[in-house]
Amino acid sequence: MITGKAEIIRSSDALDAAEKAADIFSSAAMQSFESGKIFTVAFSGGKTPLPFFKVLLHRKLDWSRIAVFQVDERFVPQDSEDNNFRMLYENLLSQTGSPDSLIFRMKTEFPDPDSAAAEYEKNLKDFFAGVEPPVFDFIHLGMGDDGHTASLFPDSPLLDDTVKLISGTMPPEISKPAVRRITMTYKLINAARHRLFLVSGKAALGAKAAVLPELWKQRFPAAGIEKSNTTWVL
User: Fold this and answer.
1) CATH no. of 7-233
2) What is the block-wise mean pLDDT of the chain (234 residues), using blocks of 10 residues?
3) Domain coordinates of the chain in residue numbers?
4) Which H helix or E strand runs over 10?
5) How are beta strands 72-74 and 7-9 bridged, if at all?
6) Which end of the chain is less crowded, N or C, counting CB atoms within 10 A of the terminal residue's CB?
7) Other C-beta atoms within 10 Å of 100: how many?
8) How many helices (H) and strands (E) does the chain have?
9) How many angstroms separate the most distant Cα atoms in the chain?
């Protein structure tokens, strides 16, 4: 059941949005460091977060204490321009000095997305050592024009799944690119301590999504994300 009320922060442009998102990320990371913990984060794909990644590179963060996971991945080769991890690595992780042991890639070398999802879910459970469901400190999300978030698309059977943490899925044919995906589910995303939507350039749509009730999730999947402890940077 969705509870609480999301926080909405408006920005003047993409760079301002990236700075505000980086402020929130850095604050959450420092709180985790102060408690002596590894900061656990999952990043979404696409090109929208690229300014956010660039700003993060200028923040004084100890990436040796940050465990990085993926929210979703397109089931394409790692060297494809459409591969989310490639964008994440080239624009952020290759420059942070993050240890390989704290980078968890969704692998597309598997025969199909479902087997890749099963392996990723096992890795999650191993890392979080029996916590069910695993609780991330921070999950970064985006949103498409159709209201999808992660790779949770309108009318997908995954929108009603309460068991899986990670799943293979197929987006609608109109999606670009219309390729199979691996994605976190609501169960995992909504268990996080904090969620950040970065949707600069879609202020009106984001403001709508931030307040839509859960019953809209089949038509507008972002509405299925927990409202409390969720920040929308528009």
Assistant:
1) 3.40.50.1360
2) 78 94 97 96 92 96 98 95 96 96 97 96 94 94 91 94 95 78 97 93 72 84 93 93
3) 7-233
4) none
5) unpaired
6) N
7) 8
8) 6, 9
9) 46
